[in-house]
Amino acid sequence: xxxxxxxxxxxxxxxxxxxxxxxxxxxxxxxxxxxxxxxxxxxxxxxxxxxxxxxxxxxxxxxxxxxxxxxxxxxxxxxxxxxxxxxxxxxxxxxxxxxxxxxxxxxxxxxxxxxxxxxxxxxxxxxxxxxxxxxxxxxxxxxxxxxxxxxxxxxxxxxxxxxxxxxxxxxxxxxxxxxxxxxxxxxxxxxxxxxxxxxxxxxxxxxxxxxxxxxxxxxxxxxxxxxxxxxxxxxxxxxxxxxxxxxxxxxxxxxxxxxxxxxxxxxxxxxxxxxxxxxxxxxxxxxxxxxxxxxxxxxxxxxxxxxxxxxxxxxxxxxxxxxxxxxxxxxxxxxxxxxxxxxxxxxxxxxxxxxxxxxxxxxxxxxxxxxx
Length: 372
Hints:
Elements: H1 13-42, H2 47-68, H3 78-91, E1 105-106, E2 112-113, H4 115-134, H5 141-161, H6 165-182, H7 186-207, H8 209-219, H9 230-242, H10 267-300, H11 304-328, H12 346-364
């Protein structure tokens, strides 16, 4: 007897267009932010634009593919993806250092692959698959909370060894959010897990000199303006110069070798310089729309698996966007978290777009009575 295929409805078009707006802005701003740097380093002002366009096309193709595949089918690949994640994380330690950290696997002419970008979604998939079966057991710390803290903590620890506290933190924050949505007691999380995470983060910050210096320079970047405080000061200059309306596309001064690699983690500062407060507000508005539509998709999902998976995917993008914008505006210590869909990066963009395909597929299979 054949199983009935799930009835597919229309995707959430607000989410769909929001993703494409962010992607389009990203491509334009990567070109604008990187053109001077690319001409200086690669003798081709469009070097990074060409690469970002290639990855964007691939990402869109992957998103459309994942959008057409029933998200329930991903469940059976959970264990395989977790197993594959381990050797990928280990392989990073045998790759060359990039800016003092081991986070990437070299793929020759294809560029670099960052396993942590995949792992954060694998952890979400594992939690959604497993928590769906827990039900009321999620209220019990030993059965419903501790196992996920151990698994997420293990993967976060592996990433932490790569000197990537930022992505490790994203994984643990998203784990906390998904556990809460799955039914874990707020008292257990609020009075037990959150303080423990805060204590662990404090320990890891002060256990490495460069992290401690970043924290102290965040409090007063001008105490070392030519060293650890340099990038944040240049970000302030860029945001300040932009004012309300900005200097105009392509008119940034900070991208002319003042801001290190302006097309990467600090691209929001260049957006502020060229598009001003209005441009920054537009980006923030798009991310707010993304989060609200993601919550809507999660609440409207036909089952617990869809709800938890949509929650995790939305949370990853939301947490990264918050951290990136907070860093660029000097609201938290400098850390290496890219701005989703906008910062330059191949593997990160393609993996994010694949996750968006899954999220949009969940939006096609909604329980009408649960929709809001």
